[in-house]
Design brief:
This protein is an alpha/beta fold. The protein has 2 domains: 249 residues, Type I PLP-dependent aspartate aminotransferase-like (Major domain) (Aspartate Aminotransferase, domain 2, 3-Layer(aba) Sandwich); 136 residues, Alpha-Beta Complex (Aspartate Aminotransferase, domain 1), CATH 3.90.1150.10. The protein has 13 helices and 18 strands. The strands form 5 sheets. It has a 4-stranded mixed beta sheet, with helices on both faces. Strand 15 and strand 16 form a beta hairpin. Helix 1 runs antiparallel to helix 8, helix 3 crosses helix 7 and helix 5 runs parallel beside helix 6. The radius of gyration is 21 Å and the shape is globular. The relative contact order is 0.18.
Length: 407
């Protein structure tokens, strides 16, 4: 019987158990503790961002960032439409309206042209958004240079949803590239934003089983986020609260796992890229099959290898491939369904409402959307685990190729 192949399973590096043992020996099991402090410090050193707060999830990190920025009722927040909903729901938590921006074909991330056009329109109407939240999709940085520049020109803060992008880098516009580790010319995902959000969910490139990190060079932002994540308790002997907070802090045990995982991140990125290259060598020339592009300014961590399927040219659809792989106990998934297509959001309404079945619907706006819709229709995420063998990859590739028109 063939083993099941998962999309992106956890991969322990060997150091995690030792750190967890230290956490148990110290008896710091609850949220907070020396492992949390060390993980925040080491993660900040790795990504090159001055301050970090370890929390329970990437969604919690995004919520804390938007809360600190004062996002509230009646505000708008611009966000990528081709993304996972966890980076968007905090907009709704704060009572604001999301504005979903379409993606560009070069990177599949937020289109800077559409972003600039919509910011200009909103500026003219006197209704600029409270924040812009671009996603680093599948571990590929958005066009930071252009996104940051246009947002800065309007004074709008950027909170990067880098949940999928630990280990990803982008080329600094200050100089020419001499490689991903070259003297500050390649910067880690999230660097330069007002804040960046990272996820350590079980399927991410490194994992703490669950958890996230909020990172920023703004020490005041991180200090406030950390306070809010601990029920916003004031610094006095008794429990005093002057604002509402949340129970969002990361546990000491979870942070211990994160410290072990952080030690192998570069190995994981290298292996993810090798997996992508293996798929590309086999499938890149197949009629009707395309792979997620990588612009020259990006070095993706290739968290997931994603293909597009032109049914007419290939001879089978995205769903045909997914279902065929499923029959072989191989997990594959469609790309994220665009947020503007999600039933929970409705561009036709202007306030939160309840439909005839008692389901809450939230107002939104959408700018463009056609590119994201096409990628959703054609895009398929293939198994991309760092433990995959060449034999595993060949098994997947053979099944895909067998469905082609010339098979």
């Amino acid at each position: 019987m063939k083993n099941r192949i998962f999309l992106s399973p956890p991969h322990m590096g060997g150091q995690e158990l030792g750190f967890v043992g230290q956490a148990f020996e110290s008896n710091y099991i609850a949220p907070l503790g020396p492992m949390v402090d060390a993980f925040e410090r080491e993660f900040g050193d790795y990504v090159g961002i001055g301050h970090c707060a370890a929390v329970s999830s990437g969604t919690a990190a995004m919520h804390l960032a938007l809360r600190h920025l004062g996002v509230g009722l009646g505000d708008e927040v611009f966000a990528s439409t081709l993304t996972f909903i966890g980076g968007v729901t905090p907009v709704v938590f704060q009572g604001a309206r999301p504005v979903f921006i379409d993606c560009e074909r070069d990177s599949w991330n937020m289109d800077p042209v559409l972003l600039e056009e919509e910011l200009a329109r909103c500026a003219g109407a006197g209704c600029l958004p409270k924040a812009v939240v671009p996603t680093d999709l599948y571990g590929q940085c958005c066009d930071y240079g252009r996104v940051f520049a246009v947002c800065e020109s309007y004074g709008v803060p950027v909170v990067v949803d880098a949940a999928e992008a630990v280990g990803a880098r982008y080329r600094n516009a200050e100089g020419e590239s001499d490689g991903p580790s070259g003297s500050g010319l390649w910067l880690h995902a999230g660097v330069g934003a007002r804040a960046a959000v990272f996820s350590f969910n079980g399927n991410k490139i490194i994992t703490t089983s669950g958890g996230g990190m909020l990172a920023s060079d703004d020490g005041e932002l991180i200090a406030h986020a950390r306070k809010l994540s601990q029920q916003a308790r004031e610094d006095v002997a008794h429990y005093e609260h002057v604002e509402i907070g949340y129970n969002y802090r990361m546990s000491n045990v979870v942070a211990a796992i994160g410290r072990g995982q952080l030690g192998v991140i570069e190995e994981r990125v290298q292996r993810k890229r090798v997996v992508f290259d293996y798929y590309e060598a086999a499938l890149g020339g197949v009629p009707g099959i395309g792979l997620m592009p990588e612009p020259g300014w990006s070095r993706s961590n290739r968290w997931l290898t994603v293909i597009t399927v032109d049914e007419e040219a290939f001879g089978a659809s995205r769903e045909d491939i997914r279902e065929a792989l499923a029959r072989e106990d191989i997990e594959a998934r469609p790309v994220w369904k665009p947020m503007h297509l999600q039933p929970v959001f409705d561009a036709r309404i202007t306030q939160v409402s309840v439909d005839s079945k008692g389901r809450t619907r939230y107002p939104c706006r959408v700018v463009g959307g056609g590119v994201a819709e096409e990628l959703f229709e054609k895009g398929l995420c293939l198994p991309s685990g760092t433990v995959l063998t060449n034999q595993d990859l060949d098994r997947i590739i053979d099944r895909v190729e067998a469905l082609g028109a010339k098979a």
